[in-house]
Amino acid sequence: MKIAVxxxxxxxxxxxxxxxxxxxxxxxxxxEEIVLVGHLDKIAYYLEKNNIANDPxxxxxxxxxxxxxxxxxxxxxRGKKDSSITTCAKLLKEKRVSAIVSAGHTGAAxxxxxxxxxxxxxxxxxxxxxxxxxxxxxxxxxxxGANTDCEPINLAQFAIxxxxxxxxxxxxxxxxxxxxxxxxxxxxxxxxxxxxxKLLSDMPINxxxxxxxxxxxxxxxxxxxxxxxxxxxxxxxxxxxxKAVLHWMKDVFTRxxxxxxxxxxARNAFKDLKAIGDADEFGxxxxxxxxxxxxxxxxxSSAKAVKNAIKVAADFVKYRLNDRIISRIQEAxxxxxxxx
Amino acid sequence: MKIAVxxxxxxxxxxxxxxxxxxxxxxxxxxEEIVLVGHLDKIAYYLEKNNIANDPxxxxxxxxxxxxxxxxxxxxxRGKKDSSITTCAKLLKEKRVSAIVSAGHTGAAxxxxxxxxxxxxxxxxxxxxxxxxxxxxxxxxxxxGANTDCEPINLAQFAIxxxxxxxxxxxxxxxxxxxxxxxxxxxxxxxxxxxxxKLLSDMPINxxxxxxxxxxxxxxxxxxxxxxxxxxxxxxxxxxxxKAVLHWMKDVFTRxxxxxxxxxxARNAFKDLKAIGDADEFGxxxxxxxxxxxxxxxxxSSAKAVKNAIKVAADFVKYRLNDRIISRIQEAxxxxxxxx
Lengths: 340, 340
Prior knowledge:
- Helix content of chain A is 46%, strand content 17%.
- Chain A is built from 13 helices and eleven strands.
- Chain A is globular.
- In chain A, helix 2 links the parallel strand 2 and strand 3 (58-62).
């Protein structure tokens, strides 16, 4: 089990990333080796600080540049062949490592792995699987942002990958697959979802039909299938609204001394509430469909989030998720696609 | 000021709708006449109950059928020519009333008014303008569900209509218009938003560029422009997550007696929090771009929501919103569209 970590990815890189790697080295003895990829001059200090510079389970690979958040991923892929994320994708391609972890530019991680590492047989495009909190537990959204424009065949493949992930990673038997749309009835939706609905209905999966923006938070299904534009807006919208709610709570619970005292008494309730949506616990979302494992962390990842993303990567490899996806795709016998 | 109300629209129709009309008759003396449209046998009891059967400001128009939530709006429009919503659309077309209010089948309201009442000059498709709560106050989403598939020109028209609504209805001077997308940078988005971005950049509006799922809740703009599929998912997703949060709060604040006591002390804070997202306060969302006023209520509208929707209809007429939209559309000199 060897895992490469993009030391330069994320808002607080490389400092926080190295901290997370140091924690992972201690907590996960089953990981044979972590390969830290980044500008060696820039990470040296943090290696010393964490006292891992001479750790026998840590290797270093130099990468000269980093893809900045404002850059176009396609241009970056062409112009920065020596970036930390493309270097990670190459290590994965060469089977030097079996998984990579990055909290950097999501589009660059998707483009690098898609172009350099390549996709699994039967998969045209990889998809991000994000986990969101619902009333009755968590649910998975695929695609949460890898593909802005999709064809029905892509969504059908996302459904299979999401199902395998829900089943073999989270242990959900016969996961319920829903298609994100604007009405529960078959006839409702846009051109993409209407076509996709037909495909999903014929597949050997537990397809529960169209699901709506509100019902996905009510436990109507385990996997929500949608294009990456939609999925990204849902993911970020959830984040934005959750932050707004915390802001309003602060406001309403401090309006007078009695409320303040009550809030103080129940302060652990606020902590529990915050924990429900704590992205750091998950650490990262897998990019499903790549021939190798790629875990994408939140840009604002903490050291704990980086550590947990490394754990997700290790589990993803351990559970042989890609073998599961390949065999489920074969079973589904989806129509062929000419899409590159 | 004459307003038609669809007595049969909504989950609790006709009972709740008639209650709302009765309240409106008392509270809004500026409304000259309310025309209640529905199956007269089915509403007679509720008119008596509310003691408005002989109210001189109330008229009744019989409609034989109602479009059920599960029906396709296009089929319903063809098959049920005597439904309550098509009857409302006809009254609006004939200028018998200047506004209509319905909490029934949204698609049927959109299709009926679009086909029977017709759109304003320069508008190809009407759009629903929904109001959502953000950290720094409310923001408007256009289109919140009228059009599942859109062209860039539609979104450009939505931007103009949303701007006029924000300015003349809510009094926001120079409203900031944002385009819902997956990245703040110009280069990001899907095919629809990339083309729309160019159109909006050239228009005489305060276009603030792409806005993301999280930033719309942080007060980044006053009007969020998107297609109706996207807008519907955002609107319903907000509703679903808000309900999930209330569910979690109930859970975490009742886990032990100390927390329960604290929550009891701060109980008015919970009430204030609920009030922030109370859809009943708004009552309804206007369908912008119709040659007349059409206010669409939430399916689960309470009597208060119906009353407030009638108030929104009256204000919409009073502020001459449609004249504003027509002149702003003329000023914008958008490219012509062949779209029906």
